[in-house]
Structure formats: C-alpha cells, structure tokens
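Protocol step 4 of 5: obtain the predicted structure for the target chain.
Materials: sequence only (see below). No template structures provided, no constraints applied. The aim of this step is simply to have a reference model before the mutagenesis design in step 5. Sequence pasted as it appears in the construct record:
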Amino acid sequence: MTAPNTWRFLAPPAPSAASRAGGRPTFSVIMAVYQGAATVGEAVGSILAQTCPPAEVIICDDGSTDDLEGALAPYRERILLLRQPNQGQPSALNTAARAARGDFLATLDRDDVFLPRRLEALSTLGAARPDLDLLTTDEYLEVDGEIVGRHSQHMPFPITGQRTAILRAGFLGHPAVRRELFLRSGGFDESFGNFAADVECWTRLILAGAQVGMVDEPLMCYRLHAGGVTANRAAALRGRVRTLEKHAANPDLSPSERVVLEEMLVHNRRRALLAESEAALRGLIDDPRAHLAAVLRDASFTTDERVRAAAALLAPGLARRWVLRRERRTGFSHLERPMDRLASH
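Step 4 output (structure tokens):
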C-alpha cells in the first residue's frame, strides 16, 4: 500500500486561482439498500474502519422486506438509517443526500467495500486540489474473493479532455461528489432507473464544468458476480443512449464534442438494440419480435446484420438456441461488459 505522502494524483491542471491547498474536506458516505441484509454489514464495516472517519454514514432502506434491521443492528449507534417505500436506488440515494452535511458525498453499494485508506486518500486529494468537484480512486475488481484486475485497466482515467471522455464512456467508477453541487444540479435523475442514473449525473456535472481527480491507487473492491448475465446490461445501454440524447441539445458543447456525441449515439443505439434483442430472445425482457424488428428498421446495421435479424424474427426459438450455443462456444454475449467476463472464467 502506498504511503499517503506518495499517493499519485491524476487531475487536469489546476487553475492559478486554485493552486493553493485548502482544508481537508469532510465526507458523508451514503448507501441505498434494497434486500441487502446478507452483504450490507461488511460494506458498512469497511466504512466505519476508515483511517479518516466519515462525517456520517447514511443508509436509506428502499423498502426492503428482508432482515436489514438485524444486519445493521451492530452499527445502529454509528449510522443514520432512513426508510422509504421501494422507489429505486437513485431515489434512495437522493433521500440520503438531502439528509447529509459533509462537503462531499461518497456512495457505496451494499456488496462492495472500501479499503481502509480510501477516505483518507480522497481527503488528501481534496485538500491538495480544492478546485475539483469529483474525487475518485482506482478500484480492484474482485470475483469470489479473488482480485482479478483494476478498473483503470478497462477504463483509463483521462487527465485532459474529460468532457469528450465522458461522452465516449462512463469512465468514473464510484466518485465522491461535492454535495452542494450535486444537490444544486438536481441529484440523480430518477427517471433513469438503477442502471444509468449515475452515468447521467456524472455526464451532466462534467459538461457543466466540473472536473475530476483520481488517486492512482486501488482503494475499494468492486465485486463482479459470476453468472450475472441479466437484462440489466440492456437497461444500462439504453440509459447510455438516453443520457446522450438528453445532452444532445446542450448549447455548451463545442463542434468537436457534438461530433463525438453523435458518433457515440449511433454506436450506443446499436449496442442497446443488440443487447435488448438478445435479452428478449433469452426471455429476460418481453417481446423479442419487437426488438428484432427495431434492428431490422435501423439503417446503421449492415445488410447482413438486418438479414440475420429478419431470420430471428421469423424463428425466435431457433435464434435463441443459436445465441446460447454461441455463448457456450465463444463466451461472448451482448449482455456483458468486457470486465464482466472476468467473472465467468
């Protein structure tokens, strides 16, 4: 583990007015938990074991029906537990954020963990660069207790060109965000659901002028789960399309940024249509014929791709068997990110 005074910071150049270091910011750690009794204890324990303690830990129970109360019982004197009917992760995080008082909001999922110095590292970066509005660290990728890689191997952190980079991909893992900015911007857009609201929020903030810094050290564990191929990937890709569509009318985009946005819209619409078609063929979402017909109508697909979609439209059962055979043979699925494939080997 790197010593605090030798941590390597990656960030855009500091403006001269912000060149002086500031005081150490405080961090509220917020969590949205739904049916997380089996794993939430370890996550909360990792927050409370930080070398730089959080200002507070706020958990919003999003309508759980399991024994979340029992799982949190050992920590009840050290956390604030809020409750609401089930409305989705973005809503629960917004509820927790409105109750927070720290300078920054750091989020943690119920089955991931912070390493002990994560908040210390973020605090050190925030003090060194008070101009930054989003602070993050690298992350370990973990499968069944084994480290299989790092987030930065799949999503390199951009020191410059962050506006263009966020249009190309959601390069941020689990950043801490300046609380006042987050709330002033409207928080997470709850219409984006559980699988895209974070990417939309970071895109919105960066396009509005926020800059991001990273401590180049893996200081949390992001857990990938074997056998996790679900319709969630299709929903995330559709959310990515909606994010780009939402910001297509942004008057602050430069001509070159607008070109990138349009290119990525075409690219992600293709990916979303393919993922939705595969998810429907697998029975994970409804109406495979409608999704295949959407591929058939989309002019961005080649003639061969549209012919295959037409064949699948005529014989969806046969197409489903072909998709499953392809995955068994090659390991490929439109419903996985590249990093998800680490969990299947």
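Step 4 remarks: Residues 255-281 form the longest helix (27 residues). The chain has two domains: 7-223, 232-344.
Proceed to step 5.
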